[in-house]
């Protein structure tokens, strides 16, 4: 049985590196993210958000991210760089199931939402399909007035089969420091890489770098047809020493640059617990290294492992390295994350992708973007192609949730949703837009599709865990009940278990 689970896990890891999916969140639900301005306790009376009534800040973003509700008459435009990370949810779940509270700073609501597969409609060609819907708040939500609504904006790229994807040139940078001896770390990595070698195409190529006190090239870029040579390199991965992540990244990117293939997808895959203690340990300095390499069309995938995990460090590296980060805790988690949510992320569909929602102040009184605190952009940066956005692979989905208040009697036009991105090959910019009407927000919460309710429960769980003022608007027992009524699939069962574990720690 153990061997079967392990085989499933390593197959998952193999798929992750090959094609790209993403979790979507087809919901009309919401979560909350930013820290509230002083005096805000949540929704005020219908049509008059309490924060605005008390003079809350209405700037598009404060230095630390979204702050309070934004008056649509003052700032109708909300702009952010897209993000497909899901590591925050995976790490929080592992921590809670171990009977510990996760640190509030590691909780990012958008990653909780994006961790669930919601099956958005895919576009027929390249680029994105835009979805927009919403719902009223559930009756259990405190201070939910008649004007309070939840808006869900979804962006989806087209999937790609293994037969049609470009060749891959992958450089694996593997942490073999002493902390990787923990079960579910290096052992899982080795099995995953071994299965990957068996599944890659002969025309793909792989290099293997290991690092502890220093970095070592165990195998230069090698065509996958030489499977035995690659297996031998994987078998030589042994735990020892400290964690010199700087040395590992530098050697990894040097290896990728030297073997760069213009016709292939070139990617560095960092497998680590993200806790450097030798060499440069400052994320900002290492981010510069990643940025320089990203400019040469080498993207980064971060795979986080372990109960002691440098979440913020790995997130910063991936965001600046034209990539993203996922978290794996055990064989079952590997299967869920890499097979169901983010399989195969070698290819890219879009570079520097940004989203923008322009609200109609005739119908919308105020709004709040939930999450994306460190991805908020100014309105003018949307069409500035020198400003970094997010990288999105085939089959990936991005979800943004807004909490908003409608004006009394609101009808007609609600907002315009836009997405802008660059083609990974030509760097040509494209833009797509879609209008949204007030009627998409009329659905009662209890009648909303199951994925909507799951997304709401996951998002507000994040608000509780991050000690947000908006977390006070819900009770964990209500969130658990909402999730439990939404289905009995594995993802939903795990969410119910996670909320139940949180309830015992946040009573």
From TrEMBL:
Residues 169-342 form the VWFA domain. Keywords: Signal. The keyword Mitochondrion does not apply. Residues 1-19 form the signal peptide. Residues 49-60 have a biased composition (Low complexity). Gene3D superfamilies: von Willebrand factor, type A domain (3.40.50.410). PANTHER family: CALCIUM-ACTIVATED CHLORIDE CHANNEL REGULATOR, ZINC FINGER (C3HC4-TYPE RING FINGER) FAMILY PROTEIN. This is VWA domain-containing protein. It comes from Dactylosporangium salmoneum. The lineage of its organism: Bacteria, Bacillati, Actinomycetota, Actinomycetes, Micromonosporales.
């Amino acid at each position: 049985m153990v061997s079967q689970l392990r085989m499933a896990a390593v197959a998952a890891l193999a798929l992750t590196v090959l094609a790209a999916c993403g979790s979507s969140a087809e919901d009309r639900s919401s979560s909350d993210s930013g820290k509230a301005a002083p005096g805000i306790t949540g929704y005020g009376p219908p049509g008059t958000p309490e924060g605005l009534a008390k003079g809350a800040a209405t700037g598009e973003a404060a230095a630390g991210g979204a702050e309070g509700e934004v008056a649509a008459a003052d700032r109708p435009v909300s702009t952010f760089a897209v993000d497909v990370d899901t590591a925050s949810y995976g790490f929080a779940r592992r921590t809670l199931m171990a009977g510990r509270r996760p640190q509030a700073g590691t909780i990012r609501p958008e990653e909780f939402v994006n961790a669930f597969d919601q099956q958005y409609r895919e576009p027929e060609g390249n680029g994105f399909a835009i979805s927009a819907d919403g719902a009223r708040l559930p009756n259990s939500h405190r201070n939910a007035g008649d004007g309070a609504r939840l808006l869900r904006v979804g962006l989806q790229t087209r999937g790609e089969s293994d037969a049609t994807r470009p060749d891959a040139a992958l450089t694996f940078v593997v942490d073999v420091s002493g902390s990787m001896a923990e079960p579910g770390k290096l052992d899982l990595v080795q099995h995953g890489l071994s299965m990957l070698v068996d599944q890659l195409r002969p025309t793909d190529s792989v290099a293997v770098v290991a690092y502890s006190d220093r970095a070592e090239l165990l195998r230069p870029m090698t065509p996958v047809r030489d499977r035995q040579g690659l297996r031998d390199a994987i078998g030589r991965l042994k735990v020892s020493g400290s964690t010199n992540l700087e040395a590992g990244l530098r050697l990894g990117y040097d290896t990728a640059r030297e073997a760069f293939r213009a016709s292939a997808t070139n990617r560095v895959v960092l497998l680590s617990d993200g806790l450097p203690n030798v060499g440069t340990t400052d994320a900002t300095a290492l981010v510069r290294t990643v940025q320089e390499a990203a400019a040469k069309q080498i993207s980064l995938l971060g795979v986080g492992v372990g109960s002691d995990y440098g979440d913020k460090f790995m997130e910063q590296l991936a965001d600046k390295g034209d990539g993203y980060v996922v978290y794996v805790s055990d064989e079952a988690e590997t299967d869920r994350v890499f097979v169901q949510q983010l399989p195969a992320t070698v290819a890219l569909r879009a570079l520097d992708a940004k989203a923008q929602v322009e609200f109609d102040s005739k119908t919308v009184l105020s709004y709040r973007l939930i999450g994306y605190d460190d991805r908020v952009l100014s309105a003018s940066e949307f069409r500035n192609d020198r400003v970094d956005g997010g990288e999105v692979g085939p089959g990936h989905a991005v979800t943004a949730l807004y909490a908003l208040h409608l004006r009394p009697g609101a009808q007609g036009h609600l907002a315009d949703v836009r997405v802008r991105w660059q083609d990974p090959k030509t760097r040509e910019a494209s833009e797509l837009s879609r209008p949204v009407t007030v009627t998409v927000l009329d659905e009662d919460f209890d009648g909303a599709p199951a994925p909507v309710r799951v997304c709401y429960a996951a998002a507000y769980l994040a608000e509780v865990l991050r000690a947000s003022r908006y977390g006070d608007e819900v009770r964990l027992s209500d969130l658990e009940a909402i999730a439990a009524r939404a289905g009995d699939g594995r993802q939903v069962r795990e969410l119910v278990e996670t909320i139940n574990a949180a309830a015992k720690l946040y009573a």
